[in-house]
Amino acid sequence: xxxxxxxxxxxxxxxxxxxxxVTDGRHSLSSVARDLDLDAKLLRRWRAELSxxxxxxxxxxxxxxxxxxxxxxxxxxENQRLREEREILKKAxxxxxxxxxx
Length: 102
Hints:
- This protein is rod-shaped.
- It has helices at 12-23, 29-35, 40-57, 67-96.
- Helix 1 (12-23) packs across helix 3 (40-57).
- The chain folds into two domains: 9-62, Arc Repressor Mutant, subunit A (Orthogonal Bundle), CATH 1.10.10; 65-102.
- It is mainly alpha-helical.
- Helix content is 66%, strand content 0%.
- The protein contains four helices and no strands.
């Protein structure tokens, strides 16, 4: 059996700085990847995400959602709550509008 590498995690700041080293034009992607002991594909993926999402939304972190995804999740929870409230009101209406005993 060979030695197993543990999965490394990187901070948002590290990722942004690594991409900045590539995009400032003074260093090649392969040399930055080699210097930081990263796979070049990983650095390319970070660069693409930073380019697509912008500095503010890229790399939200473990357990965090992008603002749009968080809003969708919040709206889904609110929608579910409103459906439950509507069902309760339907049942209450059925109880109160039923036949009255004499």
